[in-house]
Amino acid sequence: MKEIADILKLTRQEQQQILKNQKQTLLSRKQRLETIMVALEEYVSGNDISNLQIFNSSLPLKEQYANEARFIYGETETYKEFNETLEKLSPDDKEERFQSMEEIFKQIAFCVDQNPSSDEVQRLIEEWKKNLMQFMTCDAELLACIANTYKFDARFKNYFNQYSNEDFADFLYSAIMHNINR
Questions:
Q1: H or E stretch including 174?
Q2: Range of the domain at 175
Q3: Is pTM, for the whole model, over 0.85?
Q4: Can you give the residue ranges of the TipAS antibiotic-recognition domain (predicted)?
């Protein structure tokens, strides 16, 4: 109510400019909702989520993943926390954190000949979790969701399998799930 009272104190021209900006914001939200509704209809019709039109673009793979995460998890508190943390980081800090995560994956890949429940593998999974916790709060449910994505999403599976000759995505899934269930 106070905001409305403040707007009413403005000149007619200032009011019109505020309303034009508000209209533009509403049109953008409407367009986003329409796009989501079309994607939802595609998904309900049986299309795999990775094949939805909302994700088909010529964007780099990293940006496609970011768009997909925003679409799927954008309204969750965890995603909002993750996004707020990312926005506070400088580009160099972001790159450093992602490089750190990649280094952990490389170290885990060196352990594929071990049991996923081995002390060394579990130590590295703890390090991976600690790294994730710098971005967001991770409970067992979220970690299981991440593990499932690593194993069952073909794009992630292909990405992770580049680290090892073995089926590294399956190994990583097993190691994370063991960590959650211990």
A1: helix 168-181
A2: 90-182
A3: no
A4: 65-179
